[in-house]
Amino acid sequence: LFGGTHVVFVPEGRQISAYRAATGQKLWTSPRAESVLTTAPLLAGSFLWVGGKDGSLRGYNVSNGTLAARVPAGQFGIRSGIAFDRASDTAYLGNDGGQMLCFDARRRLIVARLEVGGEVLGGPVLGGGRVFFGTSQGTVLSVDASNILDRGFTFQADGAVRWPPLATDRKLYFGTDKGVFYCVDRGRGSPLWEYVTDERRPCIGQPILSGNRVYFVTADGTLYGFQEDR
């Protein structure tokens, strides 16, 4: 919702466009960037931030799509998606170089960088003052949102975790590309249960919570559902 109107922002290769949600009317298209835009856009105040294959964060004026800022975040591409804490104007994002980044949107500055090993693919998501994310090496990590260098747990899964986990009040759910779906304790990272899918088909997409059930999908289109209090 921007300016009293529901607007959809869509990355389109090296540009981003804004559409009126009710009618599909195009409102603007940004200038062509030097690099392919690779993340979903993040709305923070009057700026729309998007990560790029060149490792930069670009901030566009949300009213007209002009480029307002370009923040180099390193030499590695950004593909993980962006989690945003509106209370602190802080964003969290990962890159292909095995780093989790903390971005101060108010100051337009990368304020912390954590080396985690594998490419950051799944996440990040926020929950209870923590940041959770998965990597290409099959690790799922928990770090302190106020200081990402302060690690919590590291859980080793069977297969790469390519999609954001689901964080509930007490649990964390995620799947791997080897078809294993996990539920772990959100605070300690201790395993609670796991489920191996039929023929170990890859889990795709972020799990969702509806009522007291958790759902996830595998690459063949099969939908699985479990009781959240299992």
Strand content: over 45%
Calculate the mean pLDDT score and round it. 92
User: How far apart are the first and last residues' alpha carbons, in Å?
Assistant: 37 Å
Provide a count of the helices. 0
Number of strands: 22
Can you list the strand order of the major beta sheet?
A: 4-5-6-7
Shape: globular
Classify the secondary structure makeup into a structural class: mainly beta
| Fraction of helical residues | under 10%
Q: How much is the radius of gyration in Å?
A: 18 Å
Largest sheet: 4 strands, antiparallel
Instruction: Please provide the ordered H/E string of secondary-structure elements.
Output: EEEEEEEEEEEEEEEEEEEEEE
Low-confidence stretches: none
Short description:
The chain has strands at residues 7-12, 15-20, 26-29, 42-44, 47-51, 56-61, 67-72, 78-85, 90-95, 99-104, 109-115, 120-127, 130-135, 139-144, 147-156, 166-167, 171-175, 180-185, 191-196, 203-210, 213-218, 223-227. The chain is an all-beta fold and 230 residues long.
Give an overview of the whole structure:
It is a single chain. The chain has 230 residues and is an all-beta fold. Helices cover 0% and strands 57% of the residues. It contains no helices and 22 strands. The protein has a 4-stranded antiparallel β-sheet, with no helix packed on it. It has a 4-stranded antiparallel β-sheet with strand order 8-9-10-11, with no helix packed on it. Strands 12-13-14-15 form a 4-stranded antiparallel β-sheet, with no helix packed on it. Strand 16 and strand 17 form a beta hairpin.
